[in-house]
Structures are given as C-alpha cells and as structure tokens.
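[step 3/7] fold_predict: job queued, chain A
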Amino acid sequence: MKIKLFILSLLLLLSESVFAGGFQINEHGAKAMAMGGAFTAIANNPSAMYYNVAGITQLKGFHLMLGTTMIVPEASFRGVAPAITEYKMINQTFFPTYFYATYQVNKSLFLGVGFTTPFGLGTKWNSNWIGRYLAIKTNIQTFQINPSIAYKISDKLSVSGSFVYSFANVTITQKTPQTPFAGDAFVQLTGKDNSAFGYQFGILYKPDKKLSFGASFHSQIKYNFDGTVTLPVLSN
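[step 4/7] structure written:
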C-alpha cells in the first residue's frame, strides 16, 4: 500500500496542467461528461443518441432527456518580444443545450432522435487589441438533428444508423486598416447554412455483463455559408 501511495504521489508531482481552447462542444450528457467522454462502449442512457446510437437498445420503453451546460471560456494572448502586452478575452457565457428521445418499438427495433450543438461558442476581444485585424468578435453555432434507428441483433450485439440534418450560422467582426488619417473600419461578416447533411453509424457488443465494446462513426458535414459583409462608419 505504501508503494502504491508513493507512486501516486510521484505521478501527481510530475503531472502538468494542459489548457486547450476551441469552438467544439463535448458536453452532451452529464454522465458522459463525468466519465470524460468515455461513454461510447456504455451508452446506457438517452445521450447514446450522440455517443453511440446502438446503445439505445438497452433502454426499454420511452425515454426523454433534456439538459444544458454553462460554459464561460477564458483566454489571454501575449505576443513575442517586444510586443509582450497581455490581452485578455472578454468573458461570455454560453448555454449549449441537448435533447434526446428514444422509443422501443418491439424486442429488437428501437427509434430515437437527438438535438445537439456540436459547435456553439465564441470569442470577444477589446476593439483595440493587437489581433483586431483578425477578429474582435467571433461566434460559430452548429445544430444537429439525428433521427435514428437501432436494431438488436442478439442480446450481445446491436447496430444503428442515423441521418443527420444540420444548420449553422457564423458572425465575425474585425477591423481593417484604412489611411493613417481615416483610422480603422469595423467589418462584420455574417453567414448561415440551413441545409447541411451527414450520417452516423454505431455498434455495441457486450460479450458479458462486465465487458462491452462500442464504436461510433460520425461523417463529415460541409457547410456553405451565404451571408453579408457590413462596412459601418470609420472609427478611430
């Protein structure tokens, strides 16, 4: 026991914190979040509609799940010398929401539908920060609806297939340099796509009660954004 405690303490002392930033959202179910997303081979609640639809064959009858997550991103930027001034991103609060419904048709056939927000965050910086010509405010939101079917081939093996309908919108606000006397101009780009499609496949294999294997494939979804570019009055 002392040896195990020593090894654990050593690992904790040697560990480092890793911070990552991005627009992708992986908060699609409380249990899956608590398990660090390692839920594909378990998938035993309605959030299986996102992680592995084949898992809904474990749910008898009719099930509903609705939830949301509060996300408050934080970030800062410091350039290389001599431009080492630190710029902090303006805090924003986001509430990506998910909804799932599953229904057992008979002993082998199961239906379900899910609504998720795979991407739905944004960044906001001071209008005079060093990166203002790249972005001041950026918001990207994608929404997906996946009507699905799952089939229980045997007590050990289940498979699933899903059709994915997705829609998205994006907003980018930045500055563009003008003449020295005119100052900078704000540029706002907005776009949306209401007709993007994809598909998903899933498989769940449980050789016994204490062991299970799962796999889920999510296809690529391509968005073609149509929108506008706005050039307001110049500002200093």
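[step 5/7] annotate
Residues 27-230 form a domain with the Porin fold (CATH 2.40.160.60).
The helical segments are 2-14, 30-34, 48-51.
exit 0
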